[in-house]
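Section 5.1 Outputs to date
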Amino acid sequence: MPETPLPAEEATVIGTGTRLRGTIAFQGSFVIHGDFAGKIHAPEGTVRIGPEGRVQAEIEAAELQVEGKARGSLFAHDSIELCRGAEVQGNMRCARLRIEREAAFDGHCECFRPPSQEPEPVLHRCDLHGFFTALQVASLRP
């Protein structure tokens, strides 16, 4: 029996010529080709500002790609990409940043290390014994 293909991921789109103001929260993908002002909350989603897109907002997303104009505070849990022709003014914070030639950025940027996937080391009883033994030896020295 042949497998049924999965549907392609759908994206919410603000079309060219559309103006929208407010707060948007979503999961998945969001593409802006028009004008948007407000707040975008998508800590697990992807936001793309198309070449004709104009955004003035506070944005939180997993990934953010800018081809048009963005002004405000941009925070990506993973990556921000400023593509050719992008104009960004404001503050950016992300784990990974990519700025292509002919993209413009004016503001402050902070790149942080993503949280480690490795578990934190646990001190075992033998590790503590060695620590206290070294401490005792160090305290006996004149």
